[in-house]
Structures are given as structure tokens and as C-alpha cells.
């Protein structure tokens, strides 16, 4: 069975190239896939009819109980035959229906073939979740097929409507499936049905499942999507909306009826909605002028009929239901295909414009009339047998029986209307002169009409599987046959036809009466109101929550911090008792400076002032690190703070010196209040967190481990490049992205493209340094405006630059054992470059760094990541450090630790960040300023 | 473990000032707020790391108990460099905003404002396809093929 589905999947994938190459002839090839299903089902027939139910179970994730399970029992067998057989015929028909070189036919072929596969999977699935997946697959493919003509607004709308309605039902069904599966302890469909759980949960689950079936099979009140779905090409209507997809709901009802029919909720829902659908659909079918819509409402009506039969839960009704299932699949798809041909040849489907088609296309008329007769239940066709059986099944339930008879009267009437409307000659309408369809085009409806005609006399063939399906159910069923003698059902059939004849004869009066207005409230309007209301709610909710204002968003987040974790503080017991005021008096002094600077920062109105004051808090923090015995921290913080200041100053050159006018004082107080609340909470969190720290810290082992495995004495550095190297690597990636982002934002020119961001060559360093500069202290010093030059600065830069670079390298290599490391080293080198830039301008900077920042960033990350891989190469974990010791003649014993290379990567990356930042905020803004002064 | 009150107060003040600035509309102010906030959080790490000891270097005379806790220090160290990268990036944003709009104020999101306006006017969303058929009859479903 899995093979069958794979065949469909492969066929669907190959459909596009196939149809593109051989055009519409490809449909015949694709028809082989569903034909294979039919043939396979045919070969399985004897086994199934013997009562064996072939199963295939493919374990997938055994620990989760997930598996693919397929089962071919009589019900599945009947449906598989229909799905495969009708599918193959409709695909053959498509070969004539589509025009040559129709641009959409390739896509259509693929989706249609995929749909046949999904439908086959649906009826074969023996696992609830799997059933759901196939169910939704048919929904999605149906959406694509209805929306085939995507240029048409009505088609798009119909497709969306069908999708929304059936998906809604599908989701309800999924919930039902999960409830049932959990209650039953298994998701195997056959096992769940065999032993359906009882109780409220199971009842709710069954009702949810019915919602799925009702939406899929277009029962009242969800019937409206099916007529709208007639926007689809006719093959789709014939297959999805007559034979296959809409039957999925009926299938589900039939599947669960043996187990659930005793539930009063089930019985009421199925019978009431089924009958209502049957009557409403037939009533509406009777007033249509478009023959395709007539058939669509007829389908709605018949689906109601089917649901009543298979859902009633008696053997007789179910037998009748299977008979009707077969009959309906054959006659309704035949009728749709006939309408497709009529539409294709004449260009209209309006029965007021069609006349004399019966003479023009006699073969087609025969097929259409036979199929319609079967629909009406005219003896000997399949429909007659099914209806007789249905009457027979409800003889003891007069109310339902009356509904069925009335529905059948209407059915017979609209069947007659169809035949009359499509093929009859009408006074005042010119006879059709449309071209005759090719024999191949007519073949498929003719074949289906033949089947529906022969299925009547050959009813005993259907009887065997129908009886097998019904054997679980109470009651006894009459065998399906043409002739049961003079019995009550036969009498009812006569009554049905008599009443229908009255309706046909008095059709003028009926139409006039119907035209007085729809007696039934429009469900479609209800759907539109619901969707509109949903949309309105969405707009209101979005409008209320998505204010689009950054401060509002931030304030909401922060208030949640205050409310939720802050609220939890109220229940915290006990608070740490042994609070110490300070560790060293220095902390208090630094603290005062930091706090005052922070408050002044908030009050500052000048940009530069705010930045400098923020810098003061940063240097204050540095001192706190020193007092806390964190030399690496203090070093890095001091360097980073310095570079931050430089960057700020460079970037703020062009921004206005003052902040823009301050907003209203009221909101300022709100901001301060939120700030104080968050600050207070943060302090309290710190107290609680510190108080909660009672276990032995993991870091007590860290120094020994660092020395033993990391080969370094500087515990913090070893932690960065070894123990938490993954973390550092992630951080490096963030820095790289930030640096690249800076460059692309600043180098972005309004007209240019962003790739200039990576091309500092647009502003190349002077290739040949002018002669005079040989006497300069800096190679490009002469490029600086004389007014801004400072000889002292140039001299100092010249003298210290190389020393600083050497120092930075020293920090990298010593960092493993002493304060330093890649971060500190990189920042020092960066500072050296900053000084070079400040003293000599952007040309000087380019001379000092003749490479693209991207190279530095990229090679840095590459080196770090590459070091990680070395660990694998020497048979250890990723990023694991290896210690190699060897003797060198002059230097003595060298202890080489691979993580040094990781640190070099960090170094390069940080230098790259600084280079990128200086090139953007420094050099590029210089250039823009120069350009601005030149142009102005 | 006994928390250090001075550090707790410093951290709280830095966070309070940082948040106050964070809620402003000027991007530079927001950024300075972020800087204060990150300094404050780094100090919180100091509180969490316990009492200061000797610098965390493996030397003959220092035992693990005598050292300052090295783990929070490693975390703060990465945080410092990340903040540097972030400051640069937001500054670039501010600069770009100045280039395009002539100021560095954070504007409200235009699309969001549009939806808010729709909500106030009791309108449907822009993507809603309201096909109102006058007769309200479901039989009139558009059929084209």
C-alpha cells in the first residue's frame, strides 16, 4: 500500500516536466497511477471479500508509538476502488478538457495526481494522526485546485472559503482524534473503533470528529463552500466535489458509526443535519439556472442523504449507504463530466441558453440522461437499488422516512430539470450548433454512466462488501437487488415519482414560488459575517497591543519584569541576614562617583556631556573590578571604555550637539518611576540571588582544572578559550555581525549599493607617499589639514605605535598565564590604530591597516573555529585544548597550548571590529564631511 | 553568602538611570542608557560572585578558596566586548537615522500606526476581501469554468 502512495507521489513530481513536454497527452500517462490503485484493489478483492483485512504497518519512531499503518477492510476497499477508478477516468478526460498549451495544465496535473494519492492514503490509513494528515492534504490540494484560475477573484475567494471551512473542521477533528487516542491508549483506527472509549471525554471527542466530517462533506450549516467551489475546473468538481474528497466526511461517519451510533448526540446530529442538508440542497438545486450549480446543490443534498444512511447505525441503512455511495460516485461524476463537455463545446452552462443539445450530441445526451435517471432513482439503475434499500431501512422510523421521501421527490424533480435544461429543445431558444465533442472526450462520462446503469442489475456484486461493512451493526439487511416483490419501498418509489412528476409539470409555478425569496437564511452570509468579525477582532487586538512605539514596548517588557519576578520577591523568605556594607572602603568612594555620574547622565542635555558622564560610570566600574580582584576584567573594561568614548565622539561629530526638545514632563516622571522600580527590583534580585548561594560553587575546582587540562594559570582566560570556548565563539560571531552591520550602515550611500562597505579601496591609501613626507613623522601626515596637525601628537604616535602593537601581542601570548588575553590584546592594538588615525587622519589609518576589515574579522573567526576542529583531528572533543611541550635551543622549553591560536583568532577579530568602526565612523564620515564642504 | 550592600546600591542606581534613558526616544540617549544598564548588570555579577579574594591565577600560594570567583569574571568579560560591538552598531543606526531623517529620534512604526488607525475607525484589515453581493444569495457563487 505504501508503494501505491509512492507511485502517486512520484507521478505528481514528474507531472510538471511530463505535461510541459508532451502537453495534455501527459494526463493519460498520469492516469496510470490511480488506475494502478484500481487494479491493485481488484486483485485484493477476493481476500477482502473473504473477510481478511490486509494490513501494512511500518514502524517509524517506535519510542513515540509513531508508525505508518494501512488497512484494507471492506469499507476502505469500496472507497479505494472508487477513488482509483473515477480518478483514472477523470484524468483521461482532462486530456481532452484542457486546451492545448494551456499554461496552467502542468501544475494542475501535478496537484490533481497528488490529490488522488492523498485520497487513497486517507481511505487506507489505519492511524488517526495519519488519517488527519491525509485529510488535510486533500484540503490543501483542493484549495490549489479550486483556485486554479487564480486571476479570478471569485475563484480565489471560493478556494479560501473552502480551505477555511474544512480546515476549521479538520482541526476540531484533530482534537477529537487526540482525545480519543489518549483515552483508548492507541491511535490505531481499527482498534479505537473496535473498542471505543466511553464517558464524557469520548463523547466530546466524537462530536468534534463529527464537526470535521460535517465540514468536509458540506453538510448544513457548512454546506455553502461546495457550490462556491464550483469555480474550479469541471474535472475537479467531478472528482473532488462529487466522488472523492467530500466523501471523506461520509467515510469518517461510516467508520465510526458501528461504535458511536448508540450515542444520542451522534444520532441526533447525523440524522437532523443529514436530513436538513438533503432537503435544503435539493430545494436549492431546483432553482438553479447554471446546470453545474444545480449539480453542486444536488451533491450537497446527496451527501446529506449518505450521511443519514451510513450514520444511522443499522445494518440495513449501512447497506443502503454503501449502495448509494457507489451509485453517487458514478452518476454524479458522469454528470459533472457531461456538463464539462457541454460547457467546453457551447461556452455556456445556463439552461436558459441551451437548446437542442440532445440532437446535436446524442451520445452525450444518452450518458447524461442515464446518469440523471440513476440520480433520480429510476429503475434499473444503481440509484434505484440504493433508494429502495434506504426506504426499506427506515420503514420503522416514519419521521426520517418522510424526510427521505420528500428529499427524493425533490431529487427526482431536479434530475428531470437537469435533463430538460441541458438537452431539450426550448421554445424561443435557437438550437445549438456547437461542435461535437471528440469520442475520447465523451468516453469517460459514457463509461461512468454505463457503470451506474449496470450496477443496478448487478447489485448483488455490491451486496457482498456492503454486507461485510454492515455485519458489525445491529439489525438485518435485505440483500441489495433490483426486485424485492411488491413491497412498501416500491410503493414509496411510485409515490416519489408521482409527486416529482407534479413538480415537473407545474415547474412554472414552482419557480415563481421559489423566486419570492430564499426561505432559508443564507449560510454563506453567516460565514462572511464571521470572517469579517474575526478580521475586526484581529485589527482591534493588533491595534491595541501593537502600538508601534519603541518606548511603549520597552515599558511593557520592563513592567512585566517588575510585576512578575518583582512580585515573586514578596514571597521570598528568608532574606539574607548577613549583609555586609562594603568589602573595602574604596568601593563606597567609587560608588558615590558612579552614582552621581549616572544621575547626571540622565539629566544631561548635551550629547557629549551624556557620553562622557556615561564613560565615568564605565571607568568607575573598572575600579570596582580592580577592587574585586579581577585584573582581566579591569583591563578589558578600561580599554573597551576608551574605545567606546572615541567611537562616540567620532560618531557624534555630525549629530546636533543637544538632544532634541524634551517631551512633556509627565511622561518623564513615568519614565523615572519605571526606572526606579526596575532598579529597585534589580537590587533586590541581587540580594536574593546572593543569599540563595549556599552550595559549594562549581568554580572551586576551576583553577586546578584550568591548569591541568587548559594548561594555563590565568583561570579567567582559560575559561574563555577552553572551558567556555563555545560561548566565546558565539560571542565572536556576534561581534563580527555587529562590525559588518556598522560598516554597511555607515558606508551605505543613498544611491550606491552596500557592497562599498567592504571596499575601503574606494578611498585608497596613497600609493606613493609624496617625497616631502619622508621628513614627516607619519607617512600620510601631510594629508591632514595643517590647522589640525599637531607635531607633538605625530611624534608621540610615531614613537609609541610599534611599542603598543608589540605590547598587544605580548598580552595575547602571556594571557594564558598572566593578565591579558585576546580581548585585551585586540583592544590595545585597536587603540594603537585609533591613535594613528587621530594623529594622521584617514589616509594615515589606511597606510597603517592596508587590509579590509572583513579579512581581519573573517580570519579571526576562521582561526578560532579552526582551532576547535584541531581538537577533533587529534582525537579529542571540539575546542578541546592540547598541550604540546618541546625544547627550542635559545628559548628553552616551550609549552605550546593550542588554545593560544583560539586567542589569536579573538585578537584578530577584535582588531577587525575596531578597524571597521574607525573606518566607518572615522574615515567614512571624514570623507562625507569633505564631500559636503566641496559640494556646498 | 553575604551580599555587598554598596555594590547592590550601585548596581540598582545604574540600572534605574539606564532604564530611564532607555525609555527615551532619542537613539543616542537610548544607547547611553544601554551603556549604563550594562555597567549596572556587570556590577550585579560582582555581587553574585561573592567576596573579593586574590586574583584568579594559579600560583603556588593561592588556593581556590582564596581567589575571587573566576566564572562570573569570564562572563562579564564577554559582556564587555559584546557591549562595545552593540554600542558601535546602535551608533551606526543613529548616524544613519540622522542621514536619512535629519535627527535620531525613534519614530513609531508606520505600518503599526496604520493598523491602530484602522482599529479606531472600526475598519477591517487591508488584506480582507470583502466581496459583498447585493442580493446576499449564496446561489450567486461565481463560476467561471
UniProtKB/TrEMBL annotation, chain A:
Compartments where found: Cell membrane; Membrane
Transmembrane segments: 75-94, 106-125, 131-150, 162-182, 202-226, 269-286, 293-316, 322-342, 363-386, 398-420, 441-462, 482-506, 552-572, 584-603, 610-627, 633-652, 672-695, 729-747, 795-814, 820-839, 851-876, 896-918
InterPro entries from the UniProt entry: CPA3_Na-H_Antiporter_A, MnhB, MrpA_C/MbhD, MrpA_C/MbhE, ND/Mrp_TM, Proton_antipo_N
Pfam families named in the record: MbhD, MbhE, MnhB, Proton_antipo_M, Proton_antipo_N
Location of the region described as Disordered in the Swiss-Prot/TrEMBL record: 755-783
MrpA C-terminal/MbhD domain ranges (all copies): 593-656
Start and end residues of each NADH-Ubiquinone oxidoreductase (complex I) chain 5 N-terminal domain: 63-108
First-listed, main subcellular location of the protein, grouped into a coarse class: membrane
Domain NADH:quinone oxidoreductase/Mrp antiporter transmembrane as annotated: residue spans: 125-391
Record-given protein name: Na+/H+ antiporter subunit A
Organism name: Kineococcus halophytocola
Automatic annotation (TrEMBL), chain B:
Coiled-coil boundaries: none
One family name in Pfam for this protein: Oxidored_q2
Region (Disordered): 117-145
Keyword Cell membrane carried by entry: yes
Membrane topology, as annotated: Multi-pass membrane protein
Keywords: Cell membrane, Membrane, Transmembrane, Transmembrane helix
Predominant cellular place of this UniProt entry's protein: membrane
Protein name: Na(+)/H(+) antiporter subunit C
Subcellular location: Cell membrane
Keyword DNA-binding on entry: no
Family as reported in the entry's similarity comment: Belongs to the CPA3 antiporters (TC 2.A.63) subunit C family.
Transmembrane segments: 6-23, 30-51, 71-94
Acidic residues bias locations: 128-145
Amino acid at each position: 500500500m505504501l508503494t501505491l502512495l509512492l507511485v502517486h507521489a512520484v507521478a505528481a513530481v514528474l507531472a510538471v516536466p511530463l505535461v510541459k513536454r508532451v502537453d495534455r497527452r501527459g494526463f493519460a500517462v498520469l492516469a496510470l497511477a490511480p488506475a494502478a490503485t484500481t487494479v491493485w484493489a481488484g486483485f485484493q478483492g477476493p481476500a477482502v471479500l473473504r473477510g481478511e483485512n490486509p494490513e501494512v504497518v511500518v514502524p517509524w519512531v517506535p519510542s513515540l508509538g509513531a508508525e505508518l499503518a494501512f488497512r484494507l477492510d471492506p469499507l476502505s476497499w469500496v472507497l479505494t476502488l472508487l477513488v482509483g477508478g473515477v480518478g483514472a477516468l477523470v484524468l483521461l478526460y482532462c486530456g481532452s478538457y484542457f486546451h492545448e498549451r494551456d499554461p496552467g495544465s502542468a501544475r494542475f496535473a501535478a496537484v490533481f495526481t497528488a490529490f488522488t494519492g492523498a485520497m487513497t492514503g486517507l481511505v487506507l490509513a489505519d492511524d488517526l494522526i495519519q488519517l488527519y494528515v491525509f485529510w488535510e492534504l486533500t484540503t490543501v490540494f483542493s484549495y490549489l485546485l479550486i483556485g486554479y484560475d487564480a486571476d479570478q477573484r471569485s475563484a480565489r475567494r471560493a478556494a479560501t472559503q473552502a480551505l477555511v471551512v474544512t480546515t476549521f473542521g479538520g482541526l476540531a477533528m484533530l482534537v477529537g482524534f487526540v482525545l480519543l487516542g489518549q483515552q483508548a491508549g492507541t491511535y490505531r483506527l481499527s482498534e479505537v473503533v473496535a473498542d471505543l472509549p466511553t464517558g464524557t471525554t469520548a463523547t466530546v471527542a466524537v462530536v468534534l470528529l463529527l464537526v470535521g466530517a460535517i465540514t468536509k462533506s458540506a453538510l448544513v450549516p457548512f454546506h455553502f463552500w461546495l457550490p462556491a467551489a464550483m469555480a474550479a475546473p469541471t474535472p475537479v468538481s467531478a472528482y473532488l466535489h462529487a466522488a472523492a474528497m467530500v466523501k471523506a466526511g461520509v467515510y469518517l461517519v461510516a467508520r465510526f458509526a458501528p461504535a458511536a451510533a448508540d450515542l444520542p448526540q451522534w444520532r441526533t446530529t447525523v440524522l437532523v443535519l443529514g436530513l436538513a442538508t438533503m432537503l435544503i440542497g435539493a430545494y436549492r438545486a431546483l432553482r438553479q439556472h447554471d446546470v453545474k450549480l444545480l449539480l453542486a446543490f444536488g451533491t450537497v443534498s446527496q451527501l446529506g442523504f449518505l450521511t443519514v444512511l451510513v450514520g444511522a447505525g443499522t445494518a440495513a441503512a449501512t447497506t443502503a449507504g454503501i449502495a448509494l455511495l457507489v451509485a453517487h460516485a458514478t452518476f454524479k461524476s458522469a454528470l459533472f463530466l457531461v456538463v464539462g463537455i457541454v460547457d467546453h463545446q457551447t461556452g455556456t452552462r445556463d439552461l436558459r441558453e441551451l437548446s437542442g443539445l440532445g440532437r446535436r450530441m446524442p451520445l452525450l445526451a444518452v450518458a447524461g440522461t442515464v446518469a440523471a435517471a440513476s440520480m433520480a432513482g429510476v429503475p434499473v439503475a444503481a440509484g434505484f437499488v440504493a433508494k429502495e434499500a434506504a426506504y426499506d431501512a427506515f420503514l420503522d422510523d416514519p419521521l426520517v422516512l418522510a424526510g427521505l421521501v420528500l428529499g427524493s421527490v425533490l431529487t427526482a424533480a431536479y434530475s428531470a430539470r437537469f435533463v430538460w435544461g441541458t438537452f431539450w429543445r426550448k421554445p424561443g431558444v435557437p438550437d445549438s450548433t456547437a461542435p461535437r465533442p471528440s469520442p475520447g472526450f465523451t468516453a469517460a462520462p459514457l463509461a461512468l454512466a454505463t457503470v451506474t446503469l449496470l450496477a443496478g442489475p448487478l447489485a448483488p456484486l455490491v451486496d457482498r462488501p456492503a454486507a461485510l461493512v454492515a455485519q458489525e451493526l445491529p439489525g438485518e439487511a435485505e440483500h441489495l437487488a433490483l426486485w424485492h416483490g411488491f413491497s412498501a419501498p416500491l410503493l414509496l418509489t411510485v409515490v416519489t415519482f408521482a409527486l416529482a412528476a407534479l413538480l415537473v409539470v407545474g415547474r412554472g409555478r414552482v419557480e415563481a414560488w421559489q423566486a419570492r425569496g430564499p426561505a432559508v437564511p443564507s449560510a454563506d452570509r453567516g460565514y462572511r459575517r464571521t470572517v469579517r468579525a474575526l478580521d475586526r477582532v484581529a485589527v482591534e487586538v493588533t491595534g491595541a497591543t501593537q502600538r508601534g512605539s519603541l518606548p511603549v514596548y520597552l515599558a511593557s517588557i520592563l513592567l512585566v519584569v517588575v510585576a512578575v519576578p518583582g512580585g515573586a520577591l514578596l514571597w521570598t523568605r528568608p532574606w539574607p541576614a548577613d549583609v555586609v556594607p562594603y568589602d573595602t572602603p574604596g568601593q563606597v568612594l567609587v560608588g558615590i562617583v558612579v552614582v552621581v555620574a549616572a544621575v547626571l547622565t540622565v539629566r544631561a542635555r548635551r550629547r557629549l556631556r551624556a557620553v562622557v558622564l556615561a564613560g565615568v560610570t564605565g571607568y568607575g566600574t573598572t575600579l570596582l573590578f580592580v577592587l574585586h580582584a579581577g585584573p582581566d576584567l579591569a583591563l578589558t573594561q578600561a580599554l573597551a571604555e576608551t574605545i567606546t568614548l572615541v567611537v562616540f565622539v567620532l560618531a557624534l561629530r555630525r549629530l546636533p550637539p543637544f538632544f532634541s526638545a524634551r517631551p512633556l514632563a509627565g511622561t518623564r516622571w513615568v519614565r523615572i518611576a519605571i526606572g526606579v522600580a526596575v532598579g529597585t527590583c534589580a537590587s533586590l534580585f541581587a540580594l536574593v540571588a546572593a543569599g540563595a548561594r549556599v552550595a559549594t560553587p562549581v568554580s572551586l575546582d576551576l583553577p586546578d582544572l584550568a591548569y591541568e587540562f587548559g594548561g594555563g594559570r590565568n583561570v579567567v582566560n582559560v575559561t574563555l578559550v577552553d572551558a567556555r570556548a563555545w560561548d566565546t565563539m558565539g560571542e565572536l560571531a556576534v561581534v563580527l555581525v555587529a562590525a559588518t552591520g556598522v560598516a554597511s550602515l555607515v558606508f551605505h550611500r543613498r544611491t550606491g549599493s552596500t557592497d562599498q562597505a567592504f571596499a575601503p579601496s574606494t578611498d585608497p591609501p596613497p600609493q606613493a607617499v609624496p617625497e616631502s613626507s619622508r621628513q614627516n613623522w607619519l607617512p600620510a601626515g601631510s594629508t591632514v589639514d595643517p590647522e589640525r596637525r599637531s607635531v607633538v601628537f605625530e611624534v608621540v604616535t610615531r614613537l609609541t605605535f610599534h611599542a603598543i602593537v608589540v605590547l598587544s601581542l605580548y598580552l595575547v601570548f602571556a594571557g594564558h598565564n598572566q593578565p591579558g588575553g585576546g580581548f585585551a590584546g585586540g583592544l590595545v592594538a585597536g587603540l594603537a590604530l585609533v591613535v594613528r588615525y587621530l594623529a594622521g587622519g584617514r589616509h594615515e589609518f589606511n597606510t597603517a591597516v592596508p587590509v579590509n576589515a572583513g579579512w581581519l574579522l573573517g580570519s579571526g573567526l576562521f582561526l578560532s573555529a579552526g582551532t576547535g576542529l584541531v581538537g577533533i583531528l587529534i582525537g579529542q572533543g571540539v575546542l578541546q585544548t592540547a598541550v604540546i611541550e618541546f625544547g627550542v635551543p635559545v628559548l628553552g622549553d616551550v609549552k605550546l597550548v593550542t588554545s593560544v591560536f583560539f586567542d589569536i583568532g579573538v585578537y584578530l577579530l577584535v582588531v577587525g571590529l575596531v578597524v571597521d568602526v574607525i573606518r566607518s565612523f572615522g574615515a567614512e564620515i571624514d570623507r562625507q564631511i569633505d564631500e559636503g564642504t566641496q559640494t556646498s | 553568602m553575604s551580599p555587598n550592600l554598596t555594590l547592590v546600591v550601585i548596581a540598582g542606581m545604574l540600572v534605574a538611570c539606564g532604564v530611564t534613558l532607555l525609555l527615551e526616544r532619542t537613539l543616542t540617549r537610548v544607547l547611553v542608557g544601554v551603556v549604563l544598564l550594562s555597567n549596572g548588570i556587570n556590577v550585579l555579577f560582582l555581587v553574585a560572585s561573592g567576596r573579593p579574594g586574590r586574583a584568579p591565577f594559579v600560583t603556588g600560594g593561592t588556593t581556590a578558596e582564596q581567589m575571587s570567583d573566576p566564572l562570573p569574571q569570564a562572563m562579564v568579560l564577554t559582556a564587555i566586548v559584546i557591549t562595545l560591538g552593540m554600542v558601535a552598531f546602535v551608533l551606526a543606526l543613529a548616524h544613519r537615522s540622522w542621514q536619512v531623517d535629519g535627527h535620531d529620534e525613534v519614530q513609531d512604526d508606520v505600518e503599526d500606526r496604520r493598523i491602530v488607525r484602522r482599529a479606531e475607525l472600526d475598519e477591517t484589515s487591508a488584506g480582507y476581501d470583502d466581496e459583498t453581493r447585493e442580493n446576499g444569495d449564496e446561489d450567486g457563487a461565481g463560476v467561471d469554468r
